[in-house]
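Open question from group meeting: does this chain pack into something compact, or does most of it stay loose? Before anyone orders reagents, we agreed to write out a predicted structure and look at it together. Recording both the input and the output here so the notebook holds the full record.
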Amino acid sequence: MLLRADITRGNFRAALPAIKAALQECSFFAFDLEMTGLFLDHHSEHYFDEPQDKWSRVREAAGAYLITQFGLSCFTRTPTGDYKATTFNGTCLRPP
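Structure tokens returned:
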């Protein structure tokens, strides 16, 4: 079962109690961001990079781009062992 809500500037305050309730009741959640970019031109990826080096590059790139959208999915285990997903999507940038 999937429940979905689009969050906007106009309905954020009204949706906040549902978001809080979904987070409190869920078994686990996933949070996702869409950004205006992913990698910086002067960075290159290497298979044998140390985790700290990779993290430093990703962190620098994340600070260079804007968040355009977010997604939050809360998964709650049902009595039958299935999961119910409640998903909230939102746009973070104003339309041009």
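Observations to bring back to the group:
Residues 27-80 form one domain.
The mean pLDDT is 87.
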